[in-house]
Amino acid sequence: MSAYLLTRPETWALATLLHLPIQPGSVLSAWLGLGDEPESADLAGESLASLAGKGYYFPEAQEQSIQPELLKSLTLASVNAAEITAILRRNGQAALTRFAQAGKSIVQYGMDETHLSLHPLTGQAELAEKIIPGWFTASQDEQLQVELPLGAFLLFKQACELADLTAAETNFTSEKFAKSKLLEQSKPLDLGVDIFKAAGAGNPASSIHPEQAYRLLVSKGFLNESAADTLEIGTAGQALAVSFSDPDLCSLIISLQIWEGGFPKTGVFLSGGERLFFLDASRKPGVFVIQQLSDWREGCSWVKDLLVAGSHARYAGYLH
């Protein structure tokens, strides 16, 4: 079975009959809090009949009447103190996958207006090997390693877009573009970038002015001033620029949220132009630590560390 689908009345009935220790902030707490309490006079009877029809409940069984894997997933979803989100973006489309974690066990889940979906439990070691797509391949590796403030990273991405636009307009005879066009914005770059909004991480820093970001990119060799008011992509930025230019560029945003507070631990994998990059947004506030990878398996160690951190998450009141 790929997933269990539960309505809100079914979840209420199971939570009540099984005396699940639902913790504030857990998946079940969030799901049950989305709607009003059911008012049926025979909530248990109606819900158990519905669950039996789905094959989740066995009324004649004396030892184990609830499907064992469903029971495990429900229990974890009632006490999880950590959540992992994975957002895959490709060709303008986005797919969100969510996981609840308690200790070393993890359950994939989803919810909409009518149903909560729960998958059977998986271990953190197993998930670490599966969460990064195997088709995130890399045949080129310039071994780029650099730290960039998020504002500088965004400005460089805009510079790459301008270089691509110039190439298209000149029949690929030039990729040079005007500095004034790059810096024509009238206000500082907002660091509430899409990847953080998508991961629910909010705005990690205030802002960085485009002129500051520009000077930093020139000093690091990501941009070259080839003439008055004329720029081109520098040698240091070529590998990343090739990935940005790939129309099939893919990004995978993985974020860990624990309820003890603090900024979510977030990392981004970029796959494009036969290159693979990992952007760690967790080491320094408002900074991307960028590392080029030769294989997607190199990113598994970061994912494993993320899941280990999630396994240590606890609710302050739960242990008392």
What can you tell me about this protein's structure?
The protein has two domains: 125 residues, no CATH class; 150 residues, no CATH class. The chain has eleven helices and 16 strands. Strands 1, 2, 3, 4, 5, 6, 7, 13, 14, 15 and 16 form an eleven-stranded antiparallel β-sheet that branches. The chain has a three-stranded antiparallel β-sheet with strand order 8-12-11. It has a two-stranded antiparallel ribbon with strand order 9-10. Helix 1 packs across helix 3 and helix 6 packs across helix 9. The longest helix has 20 residues.
Fold topology:
Elements: E1 4-6, H1 8-17, H2 27-32, H3 43-54, H4 68-79, E2 82-90, E3 93-102, E4 105-111, E5 116-118, E6 122-123, H5 124-128, E7 145-149, H6 150-169, E8 177-178, H7 179-182, E9 189-190, H8 194-198, E10 207-208, H9 210-219, E11 223-227, E12 230-233, H10 238-245, E13 250-258, E14 265-272, E15 275-280, E16 287-293, H11 300-311
Antiparallel strand pairs: 1-5, 2-3, 2-13, 3-4, 4-5, 4-6, 7-16, 8-12, 9-10, 11-12, 13-14, 14-15, 15-16
Helix pairs in contact: 1-3, 6-9
Supply the key terms.
single chain, 320 residues, alpha+beta, eleven-stranded antiparallel β-sheet, three-stranded antiparallel β-sheet, 11 helices
